[in-house]
Fold this protein.
Amino acid sequence: MRAVIQRVARASVNVDGQVVGEIGPGLLLLLGVGHDDGAAEARALVDKLLGLRIFPDDQRKMNRSVMDIGGSVLVVSQFTLLADVRKGRRPSFTGAAAPEQAAVLVDEVVALIAAENVGVATGSFGAMMDVELLNAGPVTIVIDVADGRVQ
């Protein structure tokens, strides 16, 4: 599993000109699911995501988590995060999970976030999405999870 996390002042996802998910302050989670990913990887990612202290405290130091600030998470499935560009000029996506497997794990991540009483919104799995965000900082972090552990 590969995640790109962006600290945002706001973010939204549009499909066919309609907003399908939006949040205020919080995290935009772009999520790529690989063949070998399962529930253990989903849990490890959510634990790390919700505990990351990347929001400023009163001294403007990154000391607060999304939970500490009462923020939300916008989850957007993005298989292109698993692109292999080592050969040629066209990316290979053979490392990405089949849509059926990926959809289940994206839903699992959303459910795990919601179970922690954190507001969560989503894109539309498999759709062509327009993602808008106001990156706060900017702060962008990449997380790889394999074998049930953050790498």
